[in-house]
Amino acid sequence: MKARAIEVHVEELVLEGFSAADRLRVGASLERELGRLVREGGLPAALTGGGDRAVVDAGTFTHAPGATPAAAGAGVARAVYRGLGRTR
User: Fold this and answer.
1) I need a labelling partner for 19 at 20 to 30 A (CA). Which of 13, 28, 30, 78 fits?
2) What is the DSSP code string of the chain?
3) Rounded to two decimals, what is the model's pTM?
4) CA nearest 44: which of 85, 79, 87?
5) CB-CB contact of 31 with 6 (8 Å)
6) What is the model's pLDDT at position 51?
């Protein structure tokens, strides 16, 4: 099977309790974890037809007090991946 390119654009991500300096670490972790989830779990059925999704409602997630930026990014990625599987 030929690999397909997938582009994800995050316009806004609001995380309370992290400094602006953590944004790159959160983003890098989000990217790594979302890539892993897609590689291991495949694309959700809602996307296998190649349809664009203008908006993905990733809902919310919670993290432990003092969570690292990497843990927060991974949590966001899991929420986004779940959101990709939801149909409108």
Assistant:
1) 78
2) ---------------TT--GGGHHHHHHHHHHHHHHHHHHH---GGGTT----S----------TT--HHHHHHHHHHHHHHHHT---
3) 0.77
4) 85
5) no
6) 59
Residues in the chain: 88
Separation CA 10–CA 8 (nearest Å): 7
As a whole number, the mean pLDDT across the chain is 80
Sequence-ordered list of residues with C-beta below 8 angstroms from that of 48, at least 6 positions apart, any chain: none
Summarised one tens digit per residue, pLDDT across range 35-77 is 899 889 887 776 666 656 667 777 777 878 888 999 999 999 9
Q: Measure the CA–CA gap between 85 and 17, rounded to whole angstroms.
A: 28
pLDDT for the residue numbered 4: 67
CA distance 49 to 43: 10
Q: Which two tokens stand for residue 14?
A: 């609001």
